Amino acid sequence: MDIIAHGIDLVDFPRIEQMIERHGDRFVDRVFTAAEKQYAGSHRNSVEKYAGRFAAKEAILKLIGTGWRGRIGWTDIEVVNDPAGRPEVRLSGEVQQIAQRLRIRQISISITHTANFAIASAVALADSNEPERL
């Protein structure tokens, strides 16, 4: 597999906290899937978890080169954890269609947090078009 694109994003916790305070469930329901809400809600530091997932979604939109526009929905991108706790990406809707057109087979993400920030990096992987070299 070849790396064909990269996206990165940084989100400060107060930004997400203000959005939740200002818009409540309307913001959370618009941006996060049921699984993401359950994950964040199961942690004492839910704002940190929401910020990490928000940063991951932004990084993926940068990776596919669209930003948030058109028929793209925030919940077209879902970030879940595998049994070992590693974040994984699930795409649906318009984002999945764009990824297919770009021949993206997998998106690998990494999320980290500091005292006030969440950072996410996303890498798109595609099958190599070149024959294997001996």
How many strands, which pairing sense, and closed or not: the largest β-sheet?
A: 3 strands, antiparallel
> Could you name the ranges where pLDDT drops below 50 across 5 or more consecutive residues?
130-134
Question: Alpha-carbon distance between the termini?
Answer: 16 Å
Tally of helical runs: 5
Which fold name fills CATH's third level, the topology? Answer: Ribosomal Protein L22, Chain A
Which CATH-level-2 architecture? Alpha-Beta Complex
- For the CA atoms, what is the radius of gyration? 15 Å
CATH domain class: Alpha Beta
- Give the helix level as a range of percent: 40-55%
Derived structural class: alpha+beta
Give the SSE string. EHHHHEEHEE
Strand order of the largest sheet: 1-5-4
CATH homologous superfamily placement? 4'-phosphopantetheinyl transferase domain
Approximate shape: globular
What's the β-strand tally? 5
| Integer average pLDDT | 93
What portion of the residues fall into strands of 2 or more residues?
25-35%
Number of domains: 1
